[in-house]
Protein backbone atom coordinates (compact mmCIF):
# COMPACT_ATOMS: atom_id res chain seq x y z
CA UNK A 1 0.00 0.00 0.00
CA UNK A 2 1.38 3.41 -0.96
CA UNK A 3 1.76 6.20 1.57
CA UNK A 4 -0.81 8.30 -0.30
CA UNK A 5 -3.37 5.48 -0.22
CA UNK A 6 -2.79 5.04 3.56
CA UNK A 7 -3.37 8.78 4.16
CA UNK A 8 -6.62 8.64 2.15
CA UNK A 9 -7.89 5.76 4.29
CA UNK A 10 -7.15 7.74 7.46
CA UNK A 11 -9.05 10.76 6.09
CA UNK A 12 -12.08 8.79 4.94
CA UNK A 13 -14.13 9.01 8.20
CA UNK A 14 -13.55 12.77 8.32
CA UNK A 15 -14.69 13.19 4.69
CA UNK A 16 -17.85 11.15 5.38
CA UNK A 17 -18.64 13.30 8.45
CA UNK A 18 -18.21 16.53 6.44
CA UNK A 19 -20.52 15.21 3.72
CA UNK A 20 -23.15 14.23 6.31
CA UNK A 21 -23.01 17.68 7.91
CA UNK A 22 -23.38 19.34 4.51
CA UNK A 23 -26.40 17.17 3.68
CA UNK A 24 -28.13 17.90 6.98
CA UNK A 25 -27.57 21.63 6.48
CA UNK A 26 -29.21 21.43 3.05
CA UNK A 27 -32.17 19.50 4.45
CA UNK A 28 -33.01 22.11 7.13
CA UNK A 29 -32.53 25.11 4.84
CA UNK A 30 -31.29 28.52 5.93
CA UNK A 31 -30.64 29.26 9.57
CA UNK A 32 -33.77 30.13 11.58
CA UNK A 33 -34.29 32.41 14.59
CA UNK A 34 -34.52 30.85 18.02
CA UNK A 35 -38.09 31.54 19.14
CA UNK A 36 -39.26 30.79 22.68
CA UNK A 37 -43.07 30.87 22.99
CA UNK A 38 -43.16 30.50 26.78
CA UNK A 39 -44.56 34.00 27.38
CA UNK A 40 -47.69 35.74 26.06
CA UNK A 41 -48.51 39.41 26.53
CA UNK A 42 -51.84 40.35 28.08
CA UNK A 43 -51.74 43.61 26.12
CA UNK A 44 -53.33 42.79 22.79
CA UNK A 45 -56.64 42.67 20.97
CA UNK A 46 -58.15 41.40 17.75
CA UNK A 47 -57.34 43.00 14.42
CA UNK A 48 -61.02 42.44 13.49
CA UNK A 49 -62.95 45.66 14.21
CA UNK A 50 -65.90 45.03 11.89
CA UNK A 51 -68.19 42.22 10.80
CA UNK A 52 -69.50 42.60 7.25
CA UNK A 53 -72.49 40.65 5.93
CA UNK A 54 -73.06 39.84 2.25
CA UNK A 55 -75.28 37.82 -0.04
CA UNK A 56 -73.57 35.81 -2.76
CA UNK A 57 -75.89 36.52 -5.78
CA UNK A 58 -75.50 32.87 -6.62
CA UNK A 59 -76.44 29.32 -5.66
CA UNK A 60 -74.40 27.15 -3.29
CA UNK A 61 -72.24 25.40 -5.89
CA UNK A 62 -71.09 28.50 -7.76
CA UNK A 63 -70.80 30.54 -4.53
CA UNK A 64 -68.38 27.98 -3.13
CA UNK A 65 -66.42 27.84 -6.38
CA UNK A 66 -66.08 31.63 -6.72
CA UNK A 67 -65.11 32.10 -3.07
CA UNK A 68 -62.51 29.33 -2.97
CA UNK A 69 -60.87 29.36 -6.42
CA UNK A 70 -59.44 31.95 -8.85
CA UNK A 71 -62.19 34.56 -8.57
CA UNK A 72 -60.17 37.08 -6.54
CA UNK A 73 -62.96 37.09 -3.94
CA UNK A 74 -63.33 35.24 -0.66
CA UNK A 75 -64.91 35.46 2.75
CA UNK A 76 -64.14 33.98 6.12
CA UNK A 77 -67.49 32.21 6.28
CA UNK A 78 -70.06 31.03 3.76
CA UNK A 79 -73.53 30.21 5.08
CA UNK A 80 -75.21 27.64 2.86
CA UNK A 81 -78.97 27.76 2.28
CA UNK A 82 -79.93 24.07 1.92
CA UNK A 83 -78.91 22.45 4.17
CA UNK A 84 -78.05 25.40 6.40
CA UNK A 85 -74.36 25.04 7.31
CA UNK A 86 -71.62 27.60 8.00
CA UNK A 87 -68.42 26.84 6.08
CA UNK A 88 -65.10 28.27 7.30
CA UNK A 89 -63.10 29.28 4.21
CA UNK A 90 -60.46 31.75 5.41
CA UNK A 91 -58.68 31.83 8.77
CA UNK A 92 -60.17 34.67 10.84
CA UNK A 93 -56.67 36.00 11.49
CA UNK A 94 -55.98 36.36 7.78
CA UNK A 95 -57.47 38.81 5.29
CA UNK A 96 -60.37 37.67 3.12
CA UNK A 97 -61.25 39.64 -0.01
CA UNK A 98 -64.90 40.54 0.46
CA UNK A 99 -65.26 44.29 1.07
CA UNK A 100 -63.42 45.95 -1.83
CA UNK A 101 -63.31 49.75 -1.88
CA UNK A 102 -65.10 50.59 1.34
CA UNK A 103 -65.54 53.19 4.08
CA UNK A 104 -67.13 53.41 7.51
CA UNK A 105 -66.69 56.17 10.09
CA UNK A 106 -63.20 57.15 8.96
CA UNK A 107 -62.03 53.59 8.27
CA UNK A 108 -61.18 52.60 4.71
CA UNK A 109 -60.54 49.34 2.87
CA UNK A 110 -62.28 47.23 5.48
CA UNK A 111 -60.84 43.92 4.23
CA UNK A 112 -57.90 44.60 6.52
CA UNK A 113 -59.98 45.11 9.64
CA UNK A 114 -63.05 42.94 9.20
CA UNK A 115 -64.45 39.44 9.17
CA UNK A 116 -66.75 38.68 6.25
CA UNK A 117 -69.77 36.40 6.09
CA UNK A 118 -71.24 35.52 2.69
CA UNK A 119 -74.81 34.21 2.76
CA UNK A 120 -76.00 32.07 -0.14
CA UNK A 121 -78.87 34.07 -1.69
CA UNK A 122 -79.60 35.01 -5.32
CA UNK A 123 -79.87 38.75 -4.58
CA UNK A 124 -82.27 40.62 -6.88
CA UNK A 125 -83.76 40.41 -10.34
CA UNK A 126 -84.93 43.41 -12.37
CA UNK A 127 -88.25 42.75 -14.14
CA UNK A 128 -91.40 44.51 -15.36
CA UNK A 129 -92.54 44.96 -11.74
CA UNK A 130 -89.22 46.59 -10.83
CA UNK A 131 -86.42 45.17 -8.74
CA UNK A 132 -87.36 42.10 -6.69
CA UNK A 133 -85.12 40.78 -3.91
CA UNK A 134 -85.08 37.11 -2.89
CA UNK A 135 -85.97 36.29 0.72
CA UNK A 136 -83.76 34.42 3.22
CA UNK A 137 -85.10 31.39 5.05
CA UNK A 138 -85.58 31.84 8.80
CA UNK A 139 -83.33 28.84 9.37
CA UNK A 140 -80.51 30.54 7.47
CA UNK A 141 -81.03 33.81 9.37
CA UNK A 142 -80.98 31.91 12.68
CA UNK A 143 -77.62 30.41 11.67
CA UNK A 144 -76.20 33.81 10.66
CA UNK A 145 -77.29 35.23 14.04
CA UNK A 146 -75.59 32.35 15.90
CA UNK A 147 -72.43 32.74 13.80
CA UNK A 148 -72.42 36.53 14.25
CA UNK A 149 -72.78 36.25 18.02
CA UNK A 150 -69.92 33.75 18.16
CA UNK A 151 -67.58 35.93 16.08
CA UNK A 152 -68.31 39.30 17.72
CA UNK A 153 -68.00 37.79 21.19
CA UNK A 154 -64.60 36.24 20.49
CA UNK A 155 -63.22 39.34 18.75
CA UNK A 156 -64.90 41.99 20.87
CA UNK A 157 -66.52 43.60 17.80
CA UNK A 158 -68.78 46.48 18.85
CA UNK A 159 -72.52 46.27 18.00
CA UNK A 160 -72.46 49.36 15.75
CA UNK A 161 -69.67 47.75 13.74
CA UNK A 162 -71.81 44.86 12.50
CA UNK A 163 -72.51 46.14 8.99
CA UNK A 164 -73.84 45.21 5.58
CA UNK A 165 -71.69 45.43 2.48
CA UNK A 166 -74.04 48.20 1.26
CA UNK A 167 -73.33 50.25 4.39
CA UNK A 168 -69.62 50.43 3.57
CA UNK A 169 -70.06 50.76 -0.22
CA UNK A 170 -73.45 52.47 -0.78
CA UNK A 171 -74.57 52.68 -4.39
CA UNK A 172 -71.89 50.23 -5.51
CA UNK A 173 -73.31 47.39 -3.40
CA UNK A 174 -76.82 46.53 -2.15
CA UNK A 175 -76.15 43.39 -0.12
CA UNK A 176 -77.39 41.91 2.10
CA UNK A 177 -80.36 43.92 0.76
CA UNK A 178 -83.80 44.94 2.06
CA UNK A 179 -84.95 41.35 2.62
CA UNK A 180 -82.25 40.86 5.22
CA UNK A 181 -83.99 41.21 8.61
CA UNK A 182 -81.68 43.58 10.50
CA UNK A 183 -84.47 44.08 13.07
CA UNK A 184 -83.96 40.45 14.15
CA UNK A 185 -80.30 41.29 14.78
CA UNK A 186 -81.47 44.19 16.94
CA UNK A 187 -83.97 41.99 18.82
CA UNK A 188 -81.15 39.47 19.40
CA UNK A 189 -79.11 42.25 21.04
CA UNK A 190 -76.47 42.24 18.30
CA UNK A 191 -76.95 45.73 16.83
CA UNK A 192 -78.41 48.97 18.23
CA UNK A 193 -81.78 50.12 16.88
CA UNK A 194 -83.51 53.51 16.80
CA UNK A 195 -85.93 53.92 19.71
CA UNK A 196 -89.37 53.57 18.05
CA UNK A 197 -91.05 55.88 20.58
CA UNK A 198 -88.61 58.70 19.84
CA UNK A 199 -89.02 58.17 16.08
CA UNK A 200 -92.82 58.47 16.34
CA UNK A 201 -92.49 61.57 18.51
CA UNK A 202 -90.19 63.34 16.03
CA UNK A 203 -91.99 62.48 12.78
CA UNK A 204 -94.68 65.21 12.91
CA UNK A 205 -92.06 67.95 13.18
CA UNK A 206 -90.20 66.70 10.12
CA UNK A 207 -93.48 66.28 8.19
CA UNK A 208 -94.12 70.00 8.69
CA UNK A 209 -90.52 71.20 8.41
CA UNK A 210 -88.60 68.85 6.06
CA UNK A 211 -84.84 69.17 6.53
CA UNK A 212 -82.70 70.12 3.53
CA UNK A 213 -80.23 67.85 1.73
CA UNK A 214 -77.27 69.14 3.74
CA UNK A 215 -79.03 68.05 6.97
CA UNK A 216 -79.52 64.51 5.62
CA UNK A 217 -75.91 64.35 4.46
CA UNK A 218 -74.67 65.52 7.86
CA UNK A 219 -76.70 62.91 9.77
CA UNK A 220 -75.69 60.07 7.43
CA UNK A 221 -72.02 61.04 7.73
CA UNK A 222 -72.28 61.14 11.53
CA UNK A 223 -73.60 57.57 11.52
CA UNK A 224 -70.57 56.46 9.49
CA UNK A 225 -71.64 56.46 5.84
CA UNK A 226 -69.49 57.81 3.02
CA UNK A 227 -71.83 60.50 1.65
CA UNK A 228 -71.38 63.65 -0.49
CA UNK A 229 -71.35 66.92 1.48
CA UNK A 230 -72.52 69.21 -1.34
CA UNK A 231 -75.98 70.08 0.00
CA UNK A 232 -77.67 68.44 -2.99
CA UNK A 233 -80.02 65.50 -3.09
CA UNK A 234 -77.99 63.95 -5.91
CA UNK A 235 -77.95 60.29 -6.91
CA UNK A 236 -75.03 59.32 -4.61
CA UNK A 237 -76.86 60.92 -1.67
CA UNK A 238 -80.11 59.13 -2.57
CA UNK A 239 -78.13 55.87 -2.73
CA UNK A 240 -76.93 56.39 0.85
CA UNK A 241 -80.46 57.26 2.04
CA UNK A 242 -81.75 54.09 0.32
CA UNK A 243 -79.03 52.02 2.02
CA UNK A 244 -80.00 53.44 5.42
CA UNK A 245 -83.69 52.71 4.66
CA UNK A 246 -82.98 49.11 3.57
CA UNK A 247 -81.65 48.51 7.05
CA UNK A 248 -83.98 50.51 9.31
CA UNK A 249 -87.14 51.02 7.19
CA UNK A 250 -87.12 48.23 4.56
CA UNK A 251 -90.80 48.77 3.61
CA UNK A 252 -89.72 51.76 1.46
CA UNK A 253 -86.12 52.14 0.30
CA UNK A 254 -86.56 54.42 -2.70
CA UNK A 255 -84.03 56.88 -1.27
CA UNK A 256 -86.65 59.62 -0.71
CA UNK A 257 -85.84 62.12 2.05
CA UNK A 258 -89.18 61.68 3.83
CA UNK A 259 -90.25 62.57 7.38
CA UNK A 260 -89.89 59.06 8.82
CA UNK A 261 -86.34 58.75 7.45
CA UNK A 262 -85.52 62.17 8.94
CA UNK A 263 -86.89 61.05 12.32
CA UNK A 264 -84.92 57.79 12.14
CA UNK A 265 -81.72 59.71 11.31
CA UNK A 266 -82.36 62.21 14.10
CA UNK A 267 -82.86 59.45 16.68
CA UNK A 268 -79.90 57.44 15.36
CA UNK A 269 -77.60 60.42 15.92
CA UNK A 270 -79.03 61.54 19.27
CA UNK A 271 -77.38 60.26 22.49
CA UNK A 272 -79.71 57.65 23.98
CA UNK A 273 -81.59 57.28 20.71
CA UNK A 274 -80.09 53.92 19.77
CA UNK A 275 -81.09 51.07 22.04
CA UNK A 276 -79.30 47.78 22.48
CA UNK A 277 -81.62 44.92 23.48
CA UNK A 278 -80.53 42.26 25.91
CA UNK A 279 -80.04 38.94 24.10
CA UNK A 280 -83.14 36.78 24.14
CA UNK A 281 -85.34 39.53 25.53
CA UNK A 282 -87.60 42.15 24.04
CA UNK A 283 -85.86 45.48 23.22
CA UNK A 284 -84.63 46.99 26.47
CA UNK A 285 -86.12 50.15 27.97
CA UNK A 286 -84.26 53.35 27.30
CA UNK A 287 -80.87 53.24 29.08
CA UNK A 288 -79.70 56.09 31.26
CA UNK A 289 -76.63 56.60 29.09
CA UNK A 290 -75.98 56.09 25.36
CA UNK A 291 -75.14 52.47 24.55
CA UNK A 292 -72.32 53.58 22.28
CA UNK A 293 -70.12 56.60 21.90
CA UNK A 294 -69.96 56.06 18.12
CA UNK A 295 -73.67 56.81 17.74
ZN1 LIG B 1 -70.93 41.82 -0.77
Describe this structure in words.
Helices cover 38% and strands 13% of the residues. The chain has 295 residues and is an alpha/beta fold. The strands form four sheets. It has a five-stranded mixed beta sheet, sandwiched between helices. It has a two-stranded antiparallel ribbon with strand order 4-5. A hairpin with a 6-residue loop joins β2 (77-79) and β3. α6 packs across α9, α7 (213-223) packs across α8 (235-248) and α7 (213-223) runs parallel beside α9 (259-268). It is globular.
List keywords for this structure.
alpha/beta; two-stranded antiparallel ribbon; 9 helices; disordered C terminus; binds zinc ion
Task: Summarize the helices and strands and which ones pair or pack.
Blueprint lengths: L2 H26 L21 E6 L4 H9 L8 E3 L6 E3 L14 E2 L2 E2 L5 E6 L4 E4 L2 E4 L4 H18 L6 E3 H4 L13 H6 L5 E2 L1 H13 L4 H11 L11 H14 L10 H10 L5 E2 L20
Helix pairs in contact: 6-9, 7-8, 7-9
The structure holds zinc ion.
Give a short summary of the structure.
The chain has helices at 3-28, 60-68, 138-155, 165-168, 182-187, 196-208, 213-223, 235-248, 259-268, and strands spanning 50-55, 77-79, 86-88, 103-104, 107-108, 114-119, 124-127, 130-133, 162-164, 193-194, 274-275. It is α/β, with parallel strands linked by helices. Zinc ion is lined by residues 54, 165, 173, 175.
